[in-house]
## 1
Amino acid sequence: MDFFTVLFGFLPLLILAFIFRWVRQLKINSETQIKQNKEIISLLKNKG
């Protein structure tokens, strides 16, 4: 019984850590995508 109490005690912390990691990864990916889009636009402008 004690093991499950500890497990359910740590569960919210694990979920929170996972959410923060996920949000951070989304932010990094978004910044990379914006950078790539700017490069693509720049290349398209230079081509034409």
## 2
Amino acid sequence: MTTEKVTGPEFLATNGKLPFFTNPEWAKSVSEGPLKFYTSAWKEALGFTASCFETQAEYVRKLSQCSDPAEALKCHAEFAQKGWVRSCDEGAKLLDNVRTNLAAPLNN
């Protein structure tokens, strides 16, 4: 009967010295902050996209009902203003999301 001596990474993994080979729990604590951030960011981004499509549909509907160029320009100015305000609001939400989900684990 021959016994081979196990050395190197195999030895460490079988003896629990490398937790990432034997126990995936370390990944949970490391990835919790970024996972929350990306989940929240995607949710916000999809909501923002849906809102933009609704606003664009409303803009096109109003634009189709304009009877002269002055009214069309007014409609366009309102649409541009709403878009600018929404973009600023969404940017603020994104920064809050970063502060809440990424910075909090660093402070602990």
